[in-house]
Amino acid sequence: MLTVIAPATGKQIGDIPETPLSQVDIFYQKGKTAFLQWSKLTVLERAKYLLKLKIIIVEQMEGIAKIISEDTGKVVTEALIADIMPTLDGIDHITKHGEKILKRQKVKTPLLLIGKKSFIEYMPRGVVLIISPWNYPMQLAMVPMLSALAAGNTVILKPSEVTPLVGKCIEDLFIKAGFPEGVVQVAHGGKEVGAAFTNGKPDYIFFTGSVRTGKIIQQVAAKDLIPTTLELGGKDPMIVFADAHLERAAKGAAWAAFTNSGQVCMSAERLYVEKTIFPQFLSLLKKEIMDLKQGNDQEADVGSMTFPAQLQIVKDQLEDALSNGAQLETGLPPEKWAKGMFLPLTVVTNVNHQMKIIQEESFGPLLPVIPFENEEEVISLANDTVYGLNASVWTRDKEKARRVASKLVSGAVVINDAIISIANHGLPFGGTKQSGIGRYHGEAGLRIFCHEKAIVEDNGQKKSEIHWYPYRGKFPLFLQLFKSYFQTNRDWVKFAQYYLRILKKN
Ligand code: ADP
Predict the structure, then answer these.
(1) Are 72 and 134 in contact (CB under 8 A)?
(2) Which residue is catalytic, options 171, 231, 288, 361?
(3) How do residues 278-301 score in pLDDT, each as one tens digit?
(4) Order of strands across the sheet with 184-186?
(5) Per-residue model confidence as pLDDT tens digits over 50-109
(6) Cα of 207 from ligand 1 centre, angstroms
(7) Which residues contact 182 (CB under 8 A, 6 or more apart)?
């Protein structure tokens, strides 16, 4: 049984039965059986189910936001804007563009394959296993689920055991929307359940979570060459140049660092500020942070942490930094933290690039601020971690912003804002380096859940082809044919002559 404790209040708010490991095969069998029918529907027919789900989510929006907020400790406004809204917008995007993205695409056929036509077809893979995390428990489960479903797959979701109420809520929503039996199944439980389903030979694994677990999953998947998408951590840099709108950048930094209590793979975890404005910017930032209200009511800005174990990671990083000379600008040293899951919003300066606080993902309300001299230096500092998920560049100089953005080794870069690239479902989403493998959202978001199949069509009327047997006498003719074709100025006369001569050899 998964006992549900509300992180903000410490109260027990429910119990969710775990899926017994003996059910793994049954889930896969059900998923495979349901796939036979579900995959036969057209994208538009499947879209009708998604639209029904959308109506239900819209009707129950407030209630769902409260469940997410209770289960995670995040403020209810963030449940709405960062979990529910992206899910609904994902449905809009998929239902609007899915048919076009997944339909057979005609591509050019080279002249040497004369008389043939070429197409790409997208064929659903089968049963997709989606393992999702606790920080955005609705969005990060739903968007891959909806994409996999629209592409014709059936889905097994293993939501995070840290936020099981949201997992249950998702299961109930799909039941209410009337998806056929076995098309969506939810397996509740922790890492043992996740591991058992990973070992159950799904046709695809879509994982969002820590780098550590991502690597385990990739190893298990490799045994059977199961394709995966891994959406992992980040240590995202925010770069503020002296010519930025500083008030906006300070407000932006406070939000980008502390939204969802910093438990965001794309939150600003390193703030680089141009040296000439460093003191000025720091005081603007502190002022913004002082104005934030922490709590769990509707008026609060920042909620509690979600996962108790995460507090220890944040504490370790902060202690390491302080003991190595870092200076607290806001917040408290760990020994003065109050009990419970609310952490002080913490800004530190005087850090060096080797510290854990700079190199390791914090996933909490911890923001180191680092001065930089020039463009070249800040690009090299920003790229100096094992991660590369998102980044932001703040300046009024559009050329400079684009130049810096192009040089960052990052899955996404936002200019004069942060994080929000994920909110455009038309853009690919994913990481570089240890932030992950693969992309979703955009066209990739639907196509990853399909076998991309190359089709070449011949009308079958000719008796033979020039590249078929017999080869007798063809070698010198092919030599001339290819020379005439691939030389700098194509010789069409010679090409036609040799083509006909080879044809005669058939
Ligand atoms: P976090 O610490 O951010 O929760 P995890 O990577 O531990 O990140 O968890 C993300 C998801 O992966 C959760 O649903 C969790 O239950 C699941 N999980 C954890 N370990 C494993 C594993 N060995 N195999 C499969 N799933 C796992």
Answers:
(1) yes
(2) 231
(3) 999 999 999 999 999 999 999 999
(4) 184-186, 154-158, 127-131, 204-208, 228-231, 436-437
(5) 999 999 999 999 999 999 999 999 999 999 999 999 999 999 999 999 999 999 999 999
(6) 9
(7) 30, 31, 33, 34, 154
HEC-encoded secondary structure of 104-115: CEEECCCHHHCC
Task: Specify the pTM.
Answer: 0.97
Q: Whose CA is nearest to atom 17 of ligand 1?
A: 191
- Contact between residue 309 and residue 162 where contact means Cβ atoms under 8 Å apart: no
Q: What is the pLDDT of residues 149-191, one digit of tens each?
A: 999 999 999 999 999 999 999 999 999 999 999 999 999 999 9
Q: Which of 78, 265, 269, 288 is catalytic?
A: 265
Give the closest residue (by CA) to ligand 1 atom 21: 191
Q: Is the dihedral of CA 346, 351, 353, 354 positive or negative?
A: negative
Q: Ligand 1 pocket by C-beta < 6 Å: which residues?
A: 131-134, 158, 160-162, 190-191, 194-195, 198, 209-210, 213, 216-217
d(CA 282, CA 288): 10
